[in-house]
Design a protein that fits this description.
The chain has about 325 residues and is mainly alpha-helical. It has twelve helices and no strands. Helix 2 runs antiparallel to helix 6.
């Protein structure tokens, strides 16, 4: 009996070690996969704050919560099952789908640049909505739709870095990525959009140092939002172009990716300091140029296509 108990305890200990190793494997895989998607995460964080601009301050956090729940629903209920099905039955389709998503990111960035250069802004129709409830619903819906594309890219990039794991381990790692990235992105967004409120609260404190910090936060808010807008556009171009370059290499069309890689290496060798940083920057710039060319071409084609005009009766009615 004691011998059987000792054997049982040994089995339990072995199972515990195995479970701990599995948890470590999932955590490590999730961390590596999430890091690969960092560029899209930056874009997601930079894009979201604009959806609460113009809404009442007391509705900012509830709206961000609604968007976060929509984002998690996107990842877990729609994207995760589709991604796992693709990895199991059609792994060859992951790279083309990634490239389509990368081209969409390039298009979105190029469209924003086009709007900035021409002064044409599609957001004006949103600003014209007078009903607060309608405006809130419109903003949440738009944010969740945009998040779906970015979340799909994040999950696909993460999945592409998990080829050697079992289906269950891949699912566990992707679930970990979904929760961690959603919490990180929307936690950061909540902090950003409430930064002016925090600054206003500090500016009323008795300490002169806290008051100065508070005034600084309030003054920095418009600058930060503008910088995030530019950072989001840059991240979309860089990430989208990088995805396209990686896809071309996967399909054996490595001339352009290799040219960018060799240029980055040459720049690094020519730099007396920070060679690794220089190589990364030049590689990112090369990816951004590719992204801008592809995105600009899509924008050009779409703007050349004649748009359907409303009937005369509707136009004047």
């Amino acid at each position: 009996m004691p011998g059987g108990l000792v054997a049982l305890l040994d089995d339990v200990a072995a199972l515990a070690k195995l479970a701990a190793a599995s948890v470590d494997d999932v955590a490590g895989a999730a961390g590596r996969a999430g890091a690969k998607a960092a560029g899209v995460v930056i874009d997601d964080t930079a894009v979201t704050p604009r959806y609460v601009v113009g809404l009442p301050p007391d509705r900012e956090l509830p709206i961000i919560w609604k968007i976060a729940i929509g984002s998690l629903r996107n990842k877990l209920l729609f994207i995760l099952p589709a991604a796992l099905a693709l990895s199991a039955f059609a792994p060859w389709a992951i790279t083309p789908l990634l490239m389509i998503g990368g081209a969409y990111l390039c298009f979105e960035a190029a469209e924003k640049i086009f709007e900035a250069l021409t002064g044409v802004h599609h957001a004006e129709e949103v600003a014209a909505i007078d009903d607060p409830a309608e405006l809130e619903a419109r903003q949440v819906s738009g944010a969740v739709r945009t998040d779906f594309i970015l979340s799909a890219e994040i999950m696909a990039i993460a999945l592409a870095d998990l080829p050697d794991l079992s289906l269950g381990m891949r699912a566990a790692a992707l679930i970990a990525v979904a929760f961690a990235i959603t919490a990180g992105v929307y936690g950061a967004v909540a902090l950003i959009v409430k930064m002016d409120d925090i600054g206003l609260h500090l500016s009323r404190r008795s300490s002169s140092g806290l008051r100065a910090i508070g005034r600084g936060l309030v003054a920095a808010m418009p600058v930060l939002l503008q910088a995030l807008s530019h950072l989001g556009v840059a991240a979309m171009i860089w990430v989208g172009g990088g995805i396209l370059l990686h896809g071309l290499e996967e399909f054996g069309l490595g001339a352009i990716p290799q040219a960018v890689h060799h240029l980055a290496e040459a720049a690094a060798h020519a730099s007396p300091i920070a060679q690794g940083l220089v190589e990364w920057l030049v590689g990112a710039l090369g990816a951004a140029v590719v992204g801008l060319i592809v995105g600009g071409a899509i924008v050009g084609v779409l703007h050349l296509v004649p748009r359907k005009k409303a009937p005369a009766g509707e136009a004047h009615g």
